[in-house]
Recover the amino acids of this structure.
């Protein structure tokens, strides 16, 4: 790696870093991540906060009081006993003085409840009311049968079933949930970044080629150095963006109980993060190489999408398999796929996160992946060399062969 | 020693783009490549630059094969014009200059000199896409000469420029040659080549069909042109032995004659037949040679 490689590397990095599109996409993504981490607070902030008044027409004896007691702690719902006609209650709901009203009566010893509201789309309120009524009913019934409070509690206590894995390194239930969440987040990040930055590279190459500056570039620096300077410059750019977004996410999640519990962010498993970065970089290199080679045989920027299609499908396929694998990491299919280089970055990473994978399997998968990248590098840089000199009316996959021939003697 | 091409051949599959070219371009010379589209000029340049590998033969600059180690010695203006549309002129030239091994300070100094010279200093901090096509071409020319190359390769440098800019660029090219740069350029505009080069090579279908100094070529060509302006019965002139071709022009005719002596016979023929405003004997133009040679191989 010499001086010129660094010039291309830094030029690519700095120009892209300063570009408006990078700035905007980083801000927007960071904002979305921040938003998700604060979702509970945002929802809270948007709800009107006011109490919802619900009228109760009680045709039973004593249910209203019990229900009132049940909903005492609920700040959102306020109950009002209504002794007048149902017509009047209907009017109150229609004029929005009340949110809803319920009619309680007992039929054949079983309570029967009807809920009236302007619309019944908001399931939150009905759910709360239904839950409260369920409790009231159980308490009432228990009293009728003559059960004590303790007896009733014993009846409804959930079964304590603890799942214990016998394999030595197998993950505990709690660890698995945590791993699943982390793996999911990182898989999604991998998917987004590979697609986003892979197509950025392809666009870059196609733009340089179609703006015809490529010939000047490759008359002063070898195409291989130029290609690698570009791929690694954009890799650094993607890492920069990843670090920014990840920091924003981490910092804002520290204050959010919901997500911290979900992800178990208190103790982020370091080895998993390192594997994540390794597989992310290798996956990126593999796909960046594919995208760059395809970009080099395209003559016009408009053709980029069309040529990128099959490679994009590979990334999408890997992601779909990974989503399936999250729930069945031990299936033979997932195990097999974790060795195929085009899927390995996501699927092997998923297996590492969810299971205890023997070191040799990880090593084997990485070796296969690195080998494929090396092969693509040798093969692809030859096509790249020829491809950037080729200008056609319409591009097709046949151009790969033509580009290859162009670099021969 | 300069630039030497020895039996250089380039084949793409079964198609031969350049066929056995042997040339020697001494240092500090200005050398012109002529040829129709598809004659193999650009392929030859790409081989000189090392972008393509010759199928056979060898290319050397001062005895050494050209690799990326020599890229600071070589300047290239490709036929297909292009710059980064979104980059500013200054950023662009700094990037390209650094890739040719220059430091930033030298680039800025050199860039200012050229921008002044081309009368476009106000564009230093503008994006390339905002510049006119002619001005973009000047920027590209600057990118090719910024690092004061020993060998400068210009592929169709004057195409698409207005006459004022052509003159400006021509002067710059002549200046560079006088300062010691070896310049190889291609064109299909004969008059540019004729004005600038001492040596030329006419390519046709990959083969160098004519190659040598322009003076020699014209002398050995033998045929001359006679130009007559005036009111005369021109139709009968083609009957004179030695008159090969007649071309009607607005003010008279242009005749191609087999040798100088024919001109005297023509003069005798037209004497006292009408009013003669101009009668001149001229060297053949490069255009005549080109048409003759390329046309001849067409007929084969």
């Amino acid at each position: 790696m010499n001086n010129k490689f660094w010039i291309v590397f830094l030029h690519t990095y700095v120009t892209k870093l300063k570009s408006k599109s990078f700035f905007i996409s980083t801000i927007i993504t960071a904002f979305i991540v921040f938003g998700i981490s604060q979702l509970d607070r945002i929802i809270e902030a948007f709800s009107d906060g006011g109490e919802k008044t619900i009228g109760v027409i009680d045709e039973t004896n004593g249910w209203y009081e019990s229900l009132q007691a049940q909903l005492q702690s609920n700040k959102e719902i306020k109950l009002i006993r209504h002794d007048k006609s149902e017509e009047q209650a209907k009017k109150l709901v229609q004029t929005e003085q009340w949110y809803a009203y319920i009619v309680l009566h007992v039929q054949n010893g079983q309570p029967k409840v009807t809920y009236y509201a302007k619309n019944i789309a908001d399931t939150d309120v009905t759910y709360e009311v239904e839950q409260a009524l369920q409790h009231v009913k159980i308490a009432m019934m228990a009293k009728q049968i003559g059960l004590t409070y303790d007896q009733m509690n014993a009846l409804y206590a959930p079964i304590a079933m603890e799942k214990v894995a016998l394999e030595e390194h197998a993950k505990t239930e709690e660890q698995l949930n945590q791993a699943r969440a982390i793996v999911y987040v990182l898989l999604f990040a991998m998917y987004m970044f590979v697609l986003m930055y892979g197509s950025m590279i392809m666009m870059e190459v196609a733009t340089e080629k179609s703006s015809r500056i490529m010939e000047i570039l490759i008359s002063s620096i070898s195409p291989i150095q130029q290609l690698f300077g570009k791929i690694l410059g954009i890799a650094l750019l993607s890492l920069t963006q990843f670090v920014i977004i990840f920091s924003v996410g981490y910092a804002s999640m520290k204050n959010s109980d919901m997500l911290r519990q979900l992800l178990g962010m208190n103790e982020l498993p370091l080895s998993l993060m390192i594997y994540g970065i390794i597989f992310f970089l290798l996956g990126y290199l593999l796909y960046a190489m594919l995208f760059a080679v395809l970009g080099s045989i395209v003559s016009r920027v408009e053709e980029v999408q069309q040529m990128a299609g099959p490679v994009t499908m590979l990334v999408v396929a890997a992601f779909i398999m990974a989503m399936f694998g999250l729930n069945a990491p031990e299936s033979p299919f997932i195990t097999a796929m974790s060795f195929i280089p085009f899927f390995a970055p996501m699927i092997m990473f998923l297996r590492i996160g969810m299971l205890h994978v023997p070191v040799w399997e990880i090593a084997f998968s990485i070796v296969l992946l690195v080998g494929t990248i090396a092969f693509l590098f040798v093969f692809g840089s030859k096509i790249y060399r020829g491809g950037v000199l080729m200008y056609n009316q319409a591009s097709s996959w046949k151009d790969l062969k033509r580009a290859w021939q162009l670099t021969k003697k | 020693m300069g630039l030497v091409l020895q039996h250089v051949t380039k084949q793409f599959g079964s198609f031969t783009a350049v066929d056995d070219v042997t040339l020697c371009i001494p240092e500090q010379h200005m050398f012109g490549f002529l040829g129709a589209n598809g004659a193999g000029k650009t392929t030859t340049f790409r081989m000189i630059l090392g972008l393509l590998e010759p199928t056979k033969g060898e290319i050397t600059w001062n005895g050494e094969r050209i690799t990326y180690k020599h890229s600071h010695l070589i300047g290239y203006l490709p036929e297909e014009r292009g710059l980064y549309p979104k980059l500013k002129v200054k950023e662009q030239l700094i990037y390209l200059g650094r890739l040719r091994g220059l430091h930033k300070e030298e680039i800025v100094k050199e860039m200012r000199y050229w921008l002044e010279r081309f009368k476009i200093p106000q564009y230093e901090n503008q994006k390339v896409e905002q510049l006119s096509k002619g001005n973009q071409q000047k920027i590209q020319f600057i990118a090719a000469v910024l690092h004061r190359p020993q060998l400068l390769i210009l592929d169709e440098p004057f195409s698409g420029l207005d006459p004022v800019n052509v003159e400006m660029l021509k002067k710059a090219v002549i200046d560079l040659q006088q300062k010691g740069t070896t310049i190889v350029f291609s064109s299909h505009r004969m008059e540019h080549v004729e004005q600038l080069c001492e040596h030329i090579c006419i390519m046709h279908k990959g083969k160098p069909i004519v190659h040598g100094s322009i003076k020699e070529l014209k002398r050995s060509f033998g045929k001359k042109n006679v130009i007559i302006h005036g009111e005369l019965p021109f139709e009968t002139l083609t009957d004179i032995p030695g008159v090969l071709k007649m071309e009607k022009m607005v003010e008279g005719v242009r005749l191609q004659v087999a040798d100088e002596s024919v001109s005297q016979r023509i003069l005798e023929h037209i004497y006292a037949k009408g009013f003669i405003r101009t009668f001149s004997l001229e060297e053949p133009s490069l255009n005549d040679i080109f048409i003759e040679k390329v046309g001849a191989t067409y007929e084969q």
In short: The first strand of chain A starts at residue 52 and ends at 58.
